[in-house]
Amino acid sequence: MTLAPSALDRYIDSKSPVHALDARVKLLLTLACILALGLLPPGAWAGIATIATILWWAVLRARIGLGLVMRRAFVALPFALVALTLVFSRPGVPLLRLPLGPLTLTATDAGLIAFASVLVKSWLSVQAALLLTATTHFTDVLHALRALRLPAVLVAILSFAYRYLFVLVDEAQRMLRARECRSAELPGQRPGGSIVWRATVVGQMVGTLFLRSYERSERIYVAMLSRGYSGELRALHHRPLSRREQGLLFVGGGILAAIVFLTYVAGGGPR
Amino acid sequence: MLFENLAQQILLGLHIPDGFLSVPVSALWWILTIAALAVAVRQVDGLSERQIPLMGVMAAFIFAGQMLNFPIPGGTSGHLLGGALAALLLGPWAASLVMACVVALQALLFQDGGLLVLGANIFNMGIATAFVGWWVGTALLRAFGGQRWGLVAAGFVAGWVSLMVAAILTSVQLVLSGLSAAIVFPAMLGVHAVIGIGEGLITAAALAFVVATRPDLASTLTGSLGTDAARRGVGRGALAGITGVGLAIAAGLALLSPLASGDPDGLERVAEDQGFLERAQDPAYNVLPDYTIPGLDGPISTIVAGIVGLLIVFAIAYGVTLLLRGNKAETPR
């Protein structure tokens, strides 16, 4: 069992206009899309629906299963439990009263709209991020981050982390499997060992993993040194964005800005 | 299996997804995060060529270490976030960078936490846990005077407090984005007071293990440990005793948190009823004039309450430390 970055990973090498798009453009448009969703006021359904349509159109252009993206985007939904409080905390027309001991919870229409908006916006934002991940190699994302002025050291650390992530996760999973093999457990019977003892075992596993990782990083450094590493990571040169890509960036950003702008002008921010 | 997933999702309660924080709040924490990371890049020894592979592999280590868990009867499991552990092994600045990479990778690769709110997530789970873990851990180590069980106690408290601080910061951001303080604070702090015990236990055991096997790698820790204390392993009795104290404090705080936030809710309700909410703008909060905070009095007083609570916990821990050290001084070593 190895770590699969996501169920969408198998789409990463397929061919489509979205896949072929420069990572910088995709990263910026993804961020702009999430930002536009964040800026829309609660209950701005027209604006949200427009962004959703654009997003889903892009997903279909990328030839990724729309249903799969939608299902995968539910990962963030457990967090919605926290947002449930919005239903009861916004002033508005009362819809439902729940007597709960000494205090009464009052669900309001404004609260319900705020809650639903947060859910839909969060769901769509995850879809936008999924589309980026599913159509862009992570190394390209890193190059894009570098082009967007992220410090070179951070990009270097991130690329090292990404490279060894899967190695160390495999290592961790081997350790977990070894522990499973050592720990016999009868169904229906209380497993042995106190919680403190179990935590100590895990703590020692973490400590072991740390030592192995540390020693691995030393080996990596020596190996790189002997291959001519001088403290500088050489990346492929960046070509400037083509006229077409710049145009796409401006059109995409412009459409999103227009949606946000029109929502505020037309609705005055429906509340 | 279902329960295990549920437990992991509760831990993900710290990875805020997009859509839950308002744009000004996200922007504010991006600024804080960028400033902190800019300093961190300068601080880490100018990031010498040797450091870069180390930092990258350490980020991968924390990521993998978060997968190591232990089952707790009742269906949940104990996990590690790792900020305090990274700080006590690598120092706070390096740990901030490492944790920032971990959180960024989780958001970019696995959609654990959003992209617009990544600044807030990095700050909560990376920078804050690293620095709080470092401060608490090193202060306690000094206070315990280099006893080997002191390392375990410091690791446990540092792990627990760092997770609580992350939970408090997450709650503050959610409340500033319009969620109800009366529900967010007790829920987040209550859950993480319990999860933090797992964090503290794993941190303590991992530190003890590293110090016992490779004291040269944990130079920051062994410096404040006695020479023979560093060489010997840590007894299980010490771990159990410290867990007891930690459990008691955690349980106490979890019980107190609903009480602490009952009052602010009342204030909030009154402010809404009387309609003076809009007028009662604190000048300090005009830095963010773009959004309205429902119940301005509520969040602020709850935040203050949370910070005061944390200070009390720390004071108790410190007091217990001093008491224990007093006893220890009388017995000949």
Describe this structure in words.
The complex is a heterodimer of chains A (271) and B (333). With 271 residues, chain A is mainly alpha-helical. Helix content of chain A is 66%, strand content 5%. In chain A, helix 3 (45-61) runs antiparallel to helix 11 and helix 8 packs antiparallel against helix 9. The longest helix of chain A has 31 residues, at 152-182. Chain B is 73% helix and 2% strand. Chains A and B meet through helix 2, helix 6, helix 7, helix 9 and helix 10 of A and helix 2, helix 3, strand 1, helix 5 and helix 8 of B.
Q: Which strands sit side by side, in order, in the main sheet of chain A?
A: 1-2
* Pair of chains with the largest interface and how many residues each contributes: A-B, 91 and 90 residues
Arithmetic mean pLDDT of chain B: 72
CATH T-level fold name of chain B = Arp2/3 complex 21 kDa subunit ARPC3
What is the CATH top level name of chain B?
Answer: Mainly Alpha
State the helical fraction of chain A: 55-70%
Oligomer: heterodimer
Q: Which residue ranges of chain B are poorly predicted, with pLDDT under 50 across at least 5 consecutive positions?
A: 1-10, 226-234, 254-304, 325-333
Number of spatially distinct domains of chain B: 1
Number of helices of chain A: 11
| Shape category of chain A | flat
Any key phrases for this structure?
heterodimer; A: 271 residues; mainly alpha; 2 domains; two-stranded antiparallel ribbon; B: 333 residues; Arp2/3 complex 21 kDa subunit ARPC3; two-stranded antiparallel sheet; 2 strands; 73% helix; disordered C terminus
